[in-house]
Design brief:
This protein is of the alpha+beta class and 161 residues long. It is built from eight helices and four strands. It has two domains: 116 residues, Arc Repressor Mutant, subunit A; 41 residues.
Length: 161
């Protein structure tokens, strides 16, 4: 049996985190495929095999975050996933109510927190954020995330107003 968290920590030690490689080392399959614009990604379970698919038409930063989010579902919620797929929809709370799996809105928050923690580590941000220079764009580039995602993360950590 593999030590999944040791693998996550190994990848988290180097920025930007190579999310796709992390997913594959954990034994999951990763795809990027065209999806309807309201769909961001999904995790599919077939027996003991898991596949993460992200919307290929989204930008690279969004695809990275979605992949990390779906990885969060795998690590935190896989026991709630029946055979079949859990689909994540953009900005559509109704999608949670329509889902026929065990994932609920608070699980979505947990998966988002996992993705933010993985891609934008608090220790790195506390060490490198300069409030006087407000260097969030530089940090976003270092982490390969959007400037907006970095702003939200810094605010959540209490580093930026």
């Amino acid at each position: 049996m593999i030590d999944e968290m040791a693998i996550v920590k190994k990848y988290a030690a180097h920025l930007p985190v190579e999310v796709n490689a992390l997913i594959r080392e954990l034994g999951l399959t990763y795809f990027e495929a065209p999806m309807p614009s309201e769909n961001s990604g999904r995790i599919h379970k077939d027996g003991s095999d898991f596949t993460i698919t992200v919307n290929a038409s989204e930008g690279p930063q969004r695809r990275r975050f979605t992949a990390a989010h779906e990885l969060g579902h795998y690590l935190l919620h896989r026991d709630l996933l029946p055979d079949g797929a859990h689909l994540d929809r953009l900005f559509n709370a109704q999608g949670y109510e329509e889902a026929n799996d065990g994932i609920r809105p608070h699980h979505e928050v947990q998966a988002n927190q996992f993705a933010a923690n993985l891609l934008m580590p608090a220790t790195f941000l506390r060490t490198h954020y300069d409030p006087a220079a407000d260097n969030y764009k530089e940090l976003a580039r270092n982490c390969a995330v959007s400037s907006r995602a970095m702003q939200v993360r810094l605010k959540a950590l209490g580093l930026r107003g």
